[in-house]
Amino acid sequence: MIISTVNVNGLRAAARKEEGFLRWLAATDADVVCLQETRAERAQLPEEVIAPPGWHVTLAPARDKGRAGVALYSRIRPDAVRVGFGVEEFADAGRYVEADVAGVTVASLYLPSGEVGTPRQEEKERFMAAFLPYLVGLRERAGAEGREVVVCGDWNIAHREADLRNWKANTRKSGFLPEERAWLSRVFDEAGYVDVVRSLFPDSEGPYSWWSYRGKAFDNDAGWRIDYHVASPGLAAQAKEARVERAAEYGLRWSDHAPVTVHYDV
């Protein structure tokens, strides 16, 4: 099973670009694709986006139009699909959707980005506090049913210094705060999940998956690794290859993120 995840930074815009999402989707070898920040409702999207040939599509838009939104594209019809994770505040926030596909629960997550000293950071903290126990329960339920789990998406936290180029300048910024990094450590240490890409690249800087549109961040590879495959140990052990599908040049980008694709031997 090949799974890819990408924050599209607006699905309508990404689909309109000549070298954009639709061309990428037509060429990908992925069996499941997780999207974040779609920022669109079904009625706003063309047929080729909501019903591309050969794909089963689940859209989970946000209640606030033009914000957030997640989606799942699967070549295999899911056995079940669930939106949200049981917390009322985030039930229709366009932050989380999961599907059971061929013995694996695959989820698309768009964790709030936050901004220090604002209500956005408070929202991020509430989300993290509620989401960690859900992750624990998800793994337990899936394991009892003989399924593996992978939560893909934009987690909006760089876990280690190796996960962003200019880490010293970002220690007081949302996305690299000590408390955020400690929370992500709990996802791995307490909840028992595995950072799949880091397990395959244990001694590397990056590979980064997001670069600001400002300045020369992309050209200089001054990026952040915030797009993860967070998997149950059994599935992580079957990860054979991972790649960040970074555009060949700035002008060919269709998002400020790049797809992160992992080949699992299942």
Automatic annotation (TrEMBL):
<feature type="binding site">
    <location>
        <position position="37"/>
    </location>
    <ligand>
        <name>Mg(2+)</name>
    </ligand>
</feature>
<keyword id="KW-0378">Hydrolase</keyword>
<dbReference type="InterPro" id="IPR036691">
    <property type="entry name" value="Endo/exonu/phosph_ase_sf"/>
</dbReference>
<feature type="domain" description="Endonuclease/exonuclease/phosphatase">
    <location>
        <begin position="5"/>
        <end position="257"/>
    </location>
</feature>
<feature type="site" description="Important for catalytic activity">
    <location>
        <position position="227"/>
    </location>
</feature>
<feature type="active site" description="Proton donor/acceptor">
    <location>
        <position position="154"/>
    </location>
</feature>
<feature type="site" description="Interaction with DNA substrate">
    <location>
        <position position="257"/>
    </location>
</feature>
<dbReference type="Pfam" id="PF03372">
    <property type="entry name" value="Exo_endo_phos"/>
</dbReference>
<dbReference type="InterPro" id="IPR005135">
    <property type="entry name" value="Endo/exonuclease/phosphatase"/>
</dbReference>
<feature type="active site" description="Proton acceptor">
    <location>
        <position position="257"/>
    </location>
</feature>
<dbReference type="InterPro" id="IPR004808">
    <property type="entry name" value="AP_endonuc_1"/>
</dbReference>
<keyword id="KW-0464">Manganese</keyword>
<feature type="binding site">
    <location>
        <position position="154"/>
    </location>
    <ligand>
        <name>Mg(2+)</name>
    </ligand>
</feature>
<protein>
    <submittedName>
        <fullName>Exodeoxyribonuclease-3</fullName>
    </submittedName>
</protein>
<feature type="site" description="Transition state stabilizer">
    <location>
        <position position="156"/>
    </location>
</feature>
<keyword id="KW-0460">Magnesium</keyword>
<dbReference type="GO" id="GO:0006281">
    <property type="term" value="P:DNA repair"/>
</dbReference>
<comment type="similarity">
    <text>Belongs to the DNA repair enzymes AP/ExoA family.</text>
</comment>
<dbReference type="GO" id="GO:0008311">
    <property type="term" value="F:double-stranded DNA 3'-5' DNA exonuclease activity"/>
</dbReference>
<keyword id="KW-0479">Metal-binding</keyword>
<feature type="binding site">
    <location>
        <position position="257"/>
    </location>
    <ligand>
        <name>Mg(2+)</name>
    </ligand>
</feature>
<dbReference type="GO" id="GO:0046872">
    <property type="term" value="F:metal ion binding"/>
</dbReference>
<feature type="binding site">
    <location>
        <position position="156"/>
    </location>
    <ligand>
        <name>Mg(2+)</name>
    </ligand>
</feature>
<feature type="binding site">
    <location>
        <position position="7"/>
    </location>
    <ligand>
        <name>Mg(2+)</name>
    </ligand>
</feature>
<feature type="active site">
    <location>
        <position position="110"/>
    </location>
</feature>
<dbReference type="InterPro" id="IPR037493">
    <property type="entry name" value="ExoIII-like"/>
</dbReference>
<feature type="binding site">
    <location>
        <position position="256"/>
    </location>
    <ligand>
        <name>Mg(2+)</name>
    </ligand>
</feature>
